[in-house]
Amino acid sequence: MTAACASSSTPATPKGASAPEAGRAVVFLGTPHGQLVKFAGFHFGHVRSAYDAVSPDLVCVEIRPEAFARGELGDGPLEMTYLTCVARERGVPVEGIDWWTESTPFAEVDPVTQDAIEKDIQGVSLPFPPTYDEARSEAYATASLRVHEARVRHAGDAAAGDWMRRNLWMVHRVREAIARHPEARRVLVAVGCEHTAIMRQFMSGEPLAIRLAPPVTPVPPGAARASDACVLEWEKSLATLRSQIAALGERDPLRERLGRKVAVLTEAIQRRGLLAGE
Predict the structure, then answer these.
(1) Are the CB atoms for 87 and 61 separated by under 8 Å?
(2) Is residue 246 within 8 Å of 63, Cβ to Cβ?
(3) Which helix (H) or strand (E) holds 225?
(4) Residues 118-128: b if buried by 16+ CB within 10 A, e if exposed
(5) Which residues are 94's β-sheet partners?
(6) What is the CATH number of the domain that holds 185?
(7) Confidence band, pLDDT 50/70/90 cuts, at residue 36
(8) Per-residue confidence at 21, pLDDT binned at 50, 70, 90?
(9) In a domain, 44, yes or no
(10) Radius of gyration of the chain from its Cα atoms, rounded to whole angstroms
(11) Which is nearest to 244 in space by CA: 1, 72, 3, 7?
(12) 121 vs 136: CA distance, rounded Å
């Protein structure tokens, strides 16, 4: 998650929404966030190729709706800005679907509980970062569910950053977005790769074709390069992050997390989202 300048109000508990009509496809693209500018196994060439393969007429991104409405695209990971700009260039509507609050930090897990979690997931392989093909595999989905279920079961949802609640809200907001765009037949949902399994599970009972992004060959660097509009948004996000860090105390643990995001955004801006050497 990315800290934002303005705090997010906590919404009411989601109520059941009527299922969207049959004949629509919801395609999940799970991404490794900042690793996209570092890892040859899953980079922006894959993201762009997946977008082109799906050819969506509605895109849902991991950015909170209230921040998205204010134009604060940096509220989400850097590839959400990238996909937003790609969609807008094509006149495709984009909706923010994330949910989290600054007042709900990850809780500390005591050593005994952490040991129980580790024993519970012993032998479970959840690669990070995953390659594009690993991220869209059923083996990765199964492992992701096992790991997060163990964390929530032993330590509670707060220890996992309100993991279950967050995913329920994102699914709810996908449904709302689809209802607002009755003309959309191919909905691309872009979220972190560990969200896709549980979100698909929550939506499995609906009359929709629920899919993972198709196998792709990454587009060449020239086609994957971030647009001027995207780089400008990344620069705005970088300025916001630096202001946030400047306002923190020297020993605030948030400084380190935001500092890592600054480093990733700086790389992305310098190379327009491409890997080193491209």
Answers:
(1) no
(2) no
(3) none
(4) eeebeeeebee
(5) 59
(6) 3.40.1010
(7) very high
(8) low
(9) yes
(10) 18
(11) 3
(12) 21
Q: Angle, to 10 degrees, between the axis of helix 78-89 and the axis of helix 228-246?
A: 150
* Owning domain of residue 49: 25-100+161-221
Shortest CA distance to 199 belongs to which of 207, 25, 190? 190
CB atoms within 10 A of CB 222: 9
Strands 94-96 and 25-31: unpaired
Does 275 map to a domain? no
The tokens for 137 are 């595999």
188 located within any domain = yes
Question: How many domains, the chain?
Answer: 1
Q: Is the dihedral of CA 87, 92, 97, 103 positive or negative?
A: positive
Strand (E) or helix (H) holding 58? strand 58-61
Hey, what amino acid is at 26? Answer: V
Distance of CA 19 to CAs 80, 96, 175, 250, Å? Answer: 26, 19, 7, 49
CA angle 137, 100, 106 (to 5 degrees): 85
Q: Which of 205, 100, 115 is nearest to 162 (CA)?
A: 100
Amino acid at 79: E
Name the average pLDDT for the chain: 89
The rounded distance, in Å, linking the Cα atoms of 205 and 50 is 25
Distance of CA 151 to the CA centre of its chain: 19
197 pLDDT band, cuts 50/70/90, is very high
State the DSSP code for 208.
S
What gap in Å lies between CA 224 and CA 42, rounded to an integer?
A: 12
Q: How far apart are CA 161 and CA 107, in angstroms?
A: 7
> Has residue 134 been placed in a domain?
no
Q: In whole angstroms, give the CA distance from residue 209 to residue 197.
A: 15
Angle (CA) 271-277-278 rounded to 5° is 70
